[in-house]
Amino acid sequence: MLTESERQVLALVARGLVNREIAKALCISTSTVKSYLHDACRKLKARNRAQAVILAFTRGYLDLQGVYSLDELADLLSSLNPEAVETLVELLKRKHEQAKA
To answer: Which of 24, 25, 59, 76 has a CA positioned 20 to 30 A from the CA of residue 5?
Structure first.
C-alpha cells in the first residue's frame, strides 16, 4: 500500500527528523517530502505524521530494525527502568509463544 519513498520518509519521521532534514537526507525537495507524508497519511487514514508513523509500525510497513540499528535499540532499552524492562520481556515471551503456536 505505501510506496518505498513513503516508507523512507516515515522512517525518518520516526527518527525525529523534520521535513528539511528528511529532504536533505533523501536528496529531494521539502515539497516532495510533504507530498509523500500527505499521501502516507491519506493511505493510512492518519490525522498527522505521528499517527502515520504509529500506524505504519502496527500495520507492518515499518519495523524497528528498518528505523534504528540494533545498537540504537539496545541503548533505548537500556534507558528504561527495570520494571519497564520486565514488562517488555514478559510481553515478548507471550508474543514468542503465540508465534510458535
So the answer is: 76
